[in-house]
Amino acid sequence: MGEKTVGRLRNDGEARVGTGVPGLDEMLEGGFPAGSLVTLAGRPGTGKTIFASQFLYQGARDVEEPGMYVSMLEGRKAYLRNLARLGFDILPLEKKGLFRFLEMPTLTAEGLPAIWEEIVRNIEEADIVRLVIDSFTAMSQAFGSQGDIRVFTHMLLGKIIGGAGCTTLMITETPPGFLGEDSPNPGMQEFIADGVMHFHLVPVAGDARVRYIEITKMRGTNHQMGPIPIDIGSRGISVRSPHFPGRR
Ligand SMILES: Nc1ncnc2c1ncn2[C@@H]1O[C@H](COP(=O)(O)OP(=O)(O)OP(=O)(O)O)[C@@H](O)[C@H]1O
Ligand SMILES: [Mg+2]
Q: Which in 125, 199, 237, 242 has the greatest CB count within 10 A?
């Protein structure tokens, strides 16, 4: 694999990769540390897919960093249609080799090595710099025991993804019905990951809901603590002024 270009450089020379979300980079010393592995955790519908896609889209469009979305959950057609509704015009970027969608629908423990070979082959072929895996939860369901998941997680997150050098967002689904803040029992991937972001959609007064994200871990980064209110609007995710939460 050739030399990769990474995000913009900070003054001290440590590379950062822009998140793609207006207002968020400033809360992360410029973005995600280049080459890091970040877990995006949250219940269904909290914005994980949109966030991860915006990260790839912004990288491809604005700084010409090739990105790949690996999906175990959703087909390409539905994916592109949902993103087009947010103004993410992916097809031209795909044509330029700046975006790839890899559909990996059926998963068994025996089939995983082949799937990983395929992912790595695509990373090398397209010089992928930004990677999204949707989702860790779907992959880990291929395993029968917690022990197998541990071995797999170490191998996958430590060696394979770490070795490829991509800045990687790994989506994890928090079970529905779990209304609390951080999981009382963080998964293996949260320990191994360099960063963890939680996505929330919570009821407030009346029938309103507010969305927020919380960065609970980002190695080597003086990051914002506490809830960061966000909106999902017609152009995707943006950070909302913390002083005006609530209905809009
Ligand atoms: N154009 C839009 N304007 C406003 N909100 C939108 C728009 N498109 C999607 N949304 C909101 O975003 C949500 C979907 O976000 P997303 O697909 O990123 O969730 P997710 O966390 O990936 O969910 P899952 O775990 O089910 O895959 C929708 O449920 C809707 O509330
Ligand atoms: Mg999703």
A: 237
